[in-house]
Every structure is written in C-alpha cells, then in structure tokens.
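Q: I'm writing up a methods section and want to include an example of the input and output format. Could you take the sequence below and give the corresponding predicted structure tokens, formatted cleanly so I can copy it straight into the document?
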Amino acid sequence: MTTRSLALYALALLPLMASCKKDDDPVDEADTDTDTDADADTDTDADTDTDVAVEDCATPGDEDGNNLADCDDPACAGDPACASCVDAAAAAPPASVSGTTVGASDDFASTCGSSTSGDYAVSFTAPTAGDYVFDLAGSDYDTVLAVFDGCNGSELACNDDGLPGLISHLVLPLAANQTVIAVVAGYQANEGTFTLNIAPLEATESDCTDGRDLDDDGAVDCADDDCGGICVEICDNGIDDDGDFDSDCLDSDCELDPICIGTCPDIAAGSTVPATITGTTVGASQSGTNSCGGFTGPDVTLDFTAPAAGRYAFTLDPAGTDFDSVLEVRTACAPSTFIECDDNFGGNGGEQVIADLAAGDTVILSIDGVFGESGAFELDITEIPTTEISCADGTDDDLDGAIDCLDTDCAADAGCVQVCPAQQITTAPSSISGSLVGLSDEVDPSCGVADPRSSTQVEFVAPADGTYAFSLNPGGTDFDSVLALYSACGGTEVACEDEFSFGAGGGEIAVAVMTSGQSITIAIDSFADAGAYQLDVFEVAASETTCDDGVDEDVDGDVDCFDSDCAADPVCVEDCTDAVDNDLDGDVDCVDTDCAADAACVVTCPAGTLAGTLPITVTGSTLGLPNGVTPTCATSVASDTTFTFTAPTDGTYTFSTAGTGFDTVMALLDGCGGAELACNDDNPGAGLTSLVSRTMVAGETVIVVVDGFGANSGDFTLTVN
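A: Here is the clean output for your methods example:
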C-alpha cells in the first residue's frame, strides 16, 4: 500500500475510534475536540454519556432514586439480601396463624424477653389505617412477640408478658397497606406451639371467652367490666371464663359439674369400724381440689357411713402410704363441703382427720397428693373412745391431748394418785433414776409451763450441815426437764431451774444451804413431753472432786474437764493417739493444741502410696490426725491425710471418696507442700463426698489429699479410676 493510501485509511478510522473511546469523565461536558485535519472537519457534537445509579439491596435507602427502596425495588429481585424471611402470611383481620418454634433458627433479635430461642415470622398487611392488636393467646409456652417493618428492618414494638399466663400482647398503629413482620419467639430459650392472633383494636371487649384483651385495657375476658354479668365458667375448655383466676375444675363453679366430680365415690368404705382400706391414686382422675393441698394431683374418694354416733378418726398410715399425701373429709363430693383437711407437710402419710358423726352420717374421704404426687395408700378408720381407756399405757386413747394420768378421766385411778414424796433420799452423794411418762401433774413450777405436765416429787433429808446441790444429769435425762425446790410437799417454792434446752435433757441444778435433819422437796417436772430422768444429790465441794462423772461438784458452772480444777487430772489431758477427746474441749488428738509438740502429730507427707492395678481402693481414717493441708475450695480445719499417686499411662484419672460417711474435701497437689492442682468439696449427686480429676502423662506424680469440711473427720474410702 502506498503512503497516500495509508493516510486515507487512517482518516477513515478516526470516527470509529472516537465512538469507542471510554468516557473517563463522570460529569457530562461539551466535546472540546478541535479537528485540525486538512479537510476542515467541524464536528462539535455534545457528549451524551449518562452514569446510572445502582440500588444497594442490603443497605437502607433508595440509591437509584425510583422511590422504591431495597427489596421493594424490582432491581433487587433475586438478590441474596432479599431472600424472604417470612414463614407464613396472615390473612385479612381478624386473623390467626398457628405454628411451632421448636427447632427453628434464631433469625431476629428482639429487644424484650432476653430471647435466644428460635423464631417464626409472619407477614401482615393492614387493609386500613388504624390500631391493631397482636397477641399469642392460645400458645403453650412462655412467648415473646416483636413486630418489625421488614425482613431487615427496624423493630416497631416488642412484648414479653402482656397477658396472664406468660402470653405476649401488643398494640401497633399501622397505615393503610403497610406491611409488617410479626416475629414469634420465646422468653430466653423457651419454645413451643403458638397461635398468633391479629385484629383491629376494639372500643370494648366483644368476646369474653377468648383469653384476649382486644380493647387493650389490661383486663381479659370476664375480668373486663365490659363482660360484667355475662361470664360463666365452662368446665372443660382450659380457659378462666369468669375471670376469677381459676379455670375448669379448679373453679368452685364447676365442683358439682359431672366433668369435674367424675366417679364419686371411687371406693365404698362401708360402715364397719375399725377398718383398713388400701388402694392407689396412680392413674386416678382429678375430681377437685382439697383445701390444704393436692391442687393438681390425681385423687381417690371414698364414702364412709357412721354405724353409730361417735368420734371417728381417719388416718393415712405411713407404713402403707408411699407418697406425699393429703387427706380431706367432706360432707359431700363437692370440695366446698369439707369438714377438715390435713397435710403432714413432706411426709408420706401421717395425716389424720377426726370427725364427730351421728349414726347414719355419710362423709366423703378424699385422698390426694401434693404437687401432683400419687401412689399407694393405707387408710385406717377407727372410732375414738370417749374416755381414756388405760391410765398407764402411754397412749392418748381418747385423743384429747392428755395421756394417762394427765387426763382428767384418770383422776380417780389408783395408779394416778401420787404419794408425796414418791421417794426419799437421806444420804449424799446419791443418784436415783425414774420416769415421768404417764404420771399426773402434781406441781406447777414458776419457771415451767402452766399446762398439765407429768411430774414427781422426791424428799431429801440433810445428813449434816452443808450446802447441797440437786442436779438433773444430762446423761440420764432424755426430755426437756424442769427442776424446782419446795419447803415441803405442797409448800413454798424456794428455787426453780429450767435450762431452756428445747428438747435436750437435763442440765438443771439448784442449791440449798441446809442444817442436819432439815428436809426439802425436789420436784421434777417436764416442759413438754415426759421421759426418763436421773437426779443427783451431793454436797457442794470447794473444788471439782471427780473429773469424769458429769457432775459439777463445786457448782461453779464448769463440769469435769471444763473446770480448771481438773486441768492436771489425767483424764483431762489429751492422749494424742487414741481418737478420743480426752479433755472434752471438742478437739481430738492432733487437732487439739495440747498435741502440737507430740511426735505423733508431726505431719507426714505422703502418708501412703496409691499403687497397683486400677481401680485402686484404699480405706483409712483421718480421725485424730494433724491438719496438714488447707484446701482452697472449702473451709477446713479438719484432720487430713495424703497419698502419692503416679500415672502408669497417659490418661484422665479420677480420685473419689464415694462411700465415705463424713463430709469430705479432696485436693490434688503437685508435691508435698506444693501448688494445688485441683480441689472439690461436694461431688454433685454423691452427697457430701468429693471427686477430683486430672489429665496426666505417664510417670507424672501428684499428692492426693483426703480432708474434711469444717472440722469433719472419720473413716474414709478412697478410689482411683
């Protein structure tokens, strides 16, 4: 091609090259190209290029300016950010949508109810502008309800418990054709089956049986004044129709409804006494609530007809009753007709109800269980005697609260007429024993109680001038006792002592200065129940004379080894190796500071070796051993012992005191006196025993510590696995 031809060809390509040129200028501007070609081209066309904005489907806003934002813009169709979050769509109101959140994913973050549960999203479009009620009435779990303005939108409202029964409820104003997402979730991790209800807000409650608050006044159904006088409890719909907080058969309105009474009685108890009836409440229906418990459990009813006028006792025998029971006696099947109800509070059986019945009277006996418990029962029916049958059997035969000679029925009984004094003591020291059980009430000490209590009186005649002590020895007195001194039988009270031990026996001591031949009457009384006693009489010594007899001979308030007079007595010096608290200071052997320098109390670590084929089990005792280790996981001042263990192979090893009879603490150390590697007080599910574990490599050695919580010590079993 000639040079001229090449030039003409290049000129022909220029327009094509101009049309393919990329516009690097983001702003439209006039074409300022100046054609210097020899053919005088005067092209001055304006640049018509225009940049097109693109909708960002995941960022709120209308980036392309077409008045349609994000997923509402057709440009976002198919964008991953606009994948539907909706599980269902609600119809025009009133509408209900049911479903479950069980196994659902947690896609929405609501601001109420601390919800971490799965959720279910329902779209709703308001047909007209107005306020709309969203609630979850009819759901079976603790719900949370939130409303959002879109799948990736903002939360408009949220509610946890807006209705009784942990049901969510909220009201939201919406514009015509506004679409929102109602999200059903659960409080914390709760999940279950739900019903979402949507309806326009009402001026007054229109439905008084739906468990909803459609006028948003805070009152549901019959609790709303709008429903006054029109609500009646329906006994089998699971709803509190009359707003009295009791639903179905728990409502007294339903107690006579056949649905709630069921078969009553379930068992015919007849009219024979005494009688014992056995049965079970397992699988029985609930025919009403007892007045003192058994609100939700199955129950069994029996009828009994009195064969004659009298007092009858109905008793659930603990020997034949294996659940936490309740017993009620009624005049009819309806729970409101109860005569008396008894719950033994935690025990299996033991409930007793007494009823005065005329001949031919029929009562209903209801046997129920606390908190839904059920099981086998044994019901005893007896007629109560009108008077005490025996005045010497230790039994309250007529159940009037007075036993034997304390019962006025026994006032004339020869065995209940006490001679004062019942006994006489003429020497000191002396000790006598006896029992107040079944005795009459002969005295009323000023430091005791006025109620009838068994008592006895003993006369003491001083063998010589001196100061004499009269003591109820705790070692031989097994009831809460009272001790009084009188000038004579029926005379003036000169002293009264009560240790106020509330169940513990003895400890009372009274002192009298007497001349030779002078007599004094000692009254032994009971604060509550009677029992055995031991009365010690002795002349008050200048110092403690015997350090192991349980008697305060010098009446200084300190007995035996607690008295400084006994400090040097051999029986009051701690033997550091006999596992006995010799000096009665509460510390045994090496735990006692008296043994601090004793060779037997020098801490030995380790005291033993755990070796052999796994599992390894060893037994021993920490009683009386020194306190060599202070574990960090429990308060311990107890005796302890240590073992060394070397791992035979790589693995995780456990060390347990299961089977030990005292409250243990265990620890692992990296050596005697070394750092603590693990520590445990109470192994869950294993009572007060302990368990520690450690992953070890072959050849690694640890020190295993068996210790006690507080000051506990004793025989132990140690197992290595």
